[in-house]
Amino acid sequence: MSSNQNISFQAGQAKGQTQEKASTMMDKASNAAQSAKESLQETGQQIKEKAHGASESVKNATGLNK
């Protein structure tokens, strides 16, 4: 293999490795974003339930829930 062919081969290998690492990083970023989304949705649901419970407590305390 000539020097030029060797350099070209090594450049191709480096390019492939870079693309693979970029793909892996994108997958990790996507997974992190999905996890954050699910966590925020769960937190939002918990807040909604607590607000509803507080509202019911106020209605019960003031006699508006009869």
How would you briefly describe this protein structure?
With 66 residues, the chain is an all-alpha fold. Helix content is 91%, strand content 0%.
Structure overview:
With 66 residues, this protein is mainly α. 91% of the residues lie in helices and 0% in strands. The mean pLDDT is 93. This is Stress-induced protein KIN2-like. InterPro entries: LEA1/2/D7/KIN2.
Radius of gyration: 28 Å
Spans where pLDDT lies below 50 across 5 or more residues: none
Distance between the termini: 90 Å
Helical content class: over 70%
Helix tally equals: 1
Mean pLDDT, rounded to whole units?
93
Question: How many E strands?
Answer: 0
Organism: Cardamine amara subsp. amara
Protein name: Stress-induced protein KIN2-like
Give me some keywords for this one.
Stress-induced protein KIN2-like, LEA1/2/D7/KIN2, rod-shaped, 66 residues, mainly alpha
